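Tokens as discussed.
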């Protein structure tokens, strides 16, 4: 199979789907790697490094014309979709549940769309393909680095001839993959770390990394399915908030990573909590996206300072800010998935197999992944109902 790596064109994206390191493994399995000229430059992977391990550098036109599979990081733009042809395979972080309409377009064009974010994460043999974990790990690390940079004091306890510096008090909200990495990184920098999550099982994980787990007076267990959290009820939210506000007010740095699949991230740092923080405190809202964030005042992609001098950092696409590590991990996850889905150098999809069933979103002109198909059907039915709604007679 000819595997094509285009240059990512989403603004701010610096990752690349395959790095030179993984090319020999793909070649050994019978694949040929084509790379668009300059595709790796955002992560300092030069064309020559790809050529040295046997990849071929081509123009973007040749790439889309010749490749059997296009492997990407970000969801394709309309211009990129326009370049895909029937029978071609597209693999990337397609986020089908956020954008089912694009999946329908891909199906209509006869493209087989395969999404890395649909990997069944709790399946141990799929762990090496788990891009969400590898990239969340990077984001958790970088969130702490950004916090340390924005914070006007040391993180560690330092005793010097010029005096003693108190360690920073850091609170990590959300103890998933990113939160655990944030705890570990803040501890390595010498901070005193507290952490909180609505899934009680995370207490032991946080403590094993040296954080103190915050136990609220009113215990909430919001363990959902697949290791994720469920959305809190309105009553749980208000109890949680009142108690969390007290903890937040005593912190120097708050790093928020809380997500609920398919929903807006919960607000955990309210405007009132921010108003009670000391000047110079820092909030890094890692959950911030177009859907919203964990901090009420964060503005995605911006760093703002509140009236009481609290800095709120709401970075977009943190993994892209550590492009070498992010691309290396992404490329290894991608390679594992490609090797899993191919046999003797050709695509071999077994719809009965668990990983394949989860990641193949479109095939043979149809959207085949049940969750995405259901969203499209619901959207179609509501559009149909809107068309049939009787016109309101003029008064
Ligand atoms: P995520 O990004 O969906 O959420 C991050 C964290 O936010 C979660 O721990 C969640 O419980 C927490 N959260 C949600 N609402 C909250 C609220 N109101 N207040 C406080 N915290 C809140 O999670 P993730 O990092 O993608 O990981 C999800 C789960 O998947 C974890 O249990 C992780 O261990 C598991 N996982 C398992 C495997 C595996 O078994 N191989 C691999 C990867 C991830």
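Sequence:
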């Amino acid at each position: 199979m000819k595997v094509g790596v285009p240059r990512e064109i989403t603004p701010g994206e610096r990752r690349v789907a395959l790095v030179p390191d993984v090319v020999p493994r793909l070649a050994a399995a019978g694949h040929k790697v084509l790379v668009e000229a300059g595709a790796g430059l955002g992560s300092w992977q030069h064309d020559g490094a790809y050529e040295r391990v046997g990849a071929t550098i081509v123009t973007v036109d040749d790439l889309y014309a010749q490749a059997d599979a296009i492997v990407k990081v970000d969801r394709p733009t309309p211009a990129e979709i326009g370049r895909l042809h029937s029978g071609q395979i597209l693999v990337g972080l397609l986020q089908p549940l956020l954008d089912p309409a694009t999946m329908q377009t891909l199906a209509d064009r006869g493209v087989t769309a395969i999404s890395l974010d649909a990997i069944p994460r709790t399946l141990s043999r799929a762990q090496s393909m788990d891009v969400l974990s590898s990239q969340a790990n990077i984001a958790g690390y970088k969130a702490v680095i950004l916090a340390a940079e924005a914070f006007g004091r040391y993180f560690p306890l330092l005793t010097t001839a010029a005096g003693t510096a108190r360690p920073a008090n850091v609170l990590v909200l959300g103890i998933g993959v990113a939160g655990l990495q944030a705890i570990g990184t803040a501890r390595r920098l010498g901070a005193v770390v507290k952490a909180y999550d609505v899934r009680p099982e995370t207490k032991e994980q946080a403590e094993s990394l040296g954080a103190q787990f915050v136990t609220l007076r009113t215990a909430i267990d919001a363990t959902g399915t697949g290791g994720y959290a469920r959305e809190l009820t309105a009553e749980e939210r208000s109890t949680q908030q009142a108690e969390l506000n007290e903890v937040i007010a005593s912190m120097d740095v708050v790093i928020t990573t809380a997500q609920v699949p398919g929903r807006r991230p919960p607000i955990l740092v309210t405007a009132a909590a921010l108003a009670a923080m000391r000047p110079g405190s820092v909030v890094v809202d890692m959950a911030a996206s177009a859907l919203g964030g964990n901090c009420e005042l964060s503005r995605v992609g911006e760093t703002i300072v509140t009236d009481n001098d609290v800095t709120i950092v709401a970075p977009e696409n943190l993994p892209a800010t550590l492009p070498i590590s992010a691309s290396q991990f992404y490329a290894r996850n991608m390679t594992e998935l490609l090797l899993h889905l191919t046999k003797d150098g050709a695509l071999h999809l077994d719809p009965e197999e668990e990983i394949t069933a989860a990641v193949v979103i479109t095939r043979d002109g149809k959207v085949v992944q049940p969750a995405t198909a259901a969203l499209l059907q619901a959207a179609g039915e509501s559009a149909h109902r809107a068309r049939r709604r009787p016109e309101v007679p003029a008064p």
